[in-house]
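#onboarding

Welcome to the new folks! Below is a worked example of what a typical request in this channel looks like: someone posts a single protein sequence, and someone else replies with the predicted structure as tokens. Don't worry about understanding the tokens yet, we'll cover that in week two.

Example request:
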Amino acid sequence: MCGRIVQKSGPMDYVERIFPNPRAIFADPIGPRYNVAPHTRPLTIHRLDGGNLNVARLPWGYQRTDFPHFMINAKLETIRRNGWPWRGMMTMGRILVPADGWYEWIKNPDGTKQPHYIYAADGTPLLLAGISAWQPGADLDDAHGFAIVTNDVQGGMIDVHDRRPIALPPELAAEWLDPGTDVVRAREILAGGLPESAFAWHAVKREVGNPRYQEADAIDPI
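Example response:
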């Protein structure tokens, strides 16, 4: 996964995918974003604050103060072997990153790159599995950021990119968020993500390579 998502739907459009009757309506003043990049604060859904459902903007990307690398993705294979640095977050830091789709780039023979937009074939919002180091009261910085869980690609999507985020169906997304779900079950849930056949994709304009480009036509096919 290259590291760019789309969040054009309203917060409640995402929340209602897993909680049909939420008790609180979250109003987000920022509005739709068609080109969300790392080092920003996308909308996330979590239950890290005493088990209560929360919709909040958390920092995308994780970097420990004693480690030189900034990580925006967490590989499924690393999580399965209980690898560092994700092992603790799998217990205490499971979140969802709602998205309408994401971008990947194909390298052309002439060296240029053609962006593609990937999204659910049925047009519904996606619930991407994420893990975060954020805790109540913590700073919103890289040391308390999140990463999106990714897996190898199967089928035709490999023509676009060799890895992709894990998108969970609503019932598994709710279980993923549940603080009562243990780590063993959480790893099993990651194996139940939507298959490649659930997605569609098309080429989009090259302007999306600049994360400052936020026009609605960013996701239009060319």
